[in-house]
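Annotated sample (chain length 111).
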Amino acid sequence: MKTDNHEVIFVIVNSGFAEEAMDVAREQGVRGGTILNARGVAREKEATFFGITVHAEKEILMMVVEKEIRDNVLNALYTRMGMGQKAQGIAFCLPVSDVAGLVKLPEEENI
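Output written by the structure step:
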């Protein structure tokens, strides 16, 4: 289905923080997301410790959200999961032109 009403938010956090990021997003009205395991990369000089290469383990949370809640979700994630926090998260969004598989919950159908 064609839509210009949705965007996908990507949140990249340190390993172990994606569930907490999802909780923050749910508080803003997001219904669910997908968590992927990832590995961060850094400049060689910064990524070695006593001669051992360190690869920071990361998690990526992807959520398709309605545009009207996007800014609230991003602000909440920035405040509670941002670079100044233990999660050291970054978040960004991209437009979604087509959506399949999203269903309205019964309480949303009367809106």
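Annotation: The mean pLDDT is 85.
Annotation: The beta strands are 6-14, 34-39, 48-49, 52-53, 57-66, 90-95.
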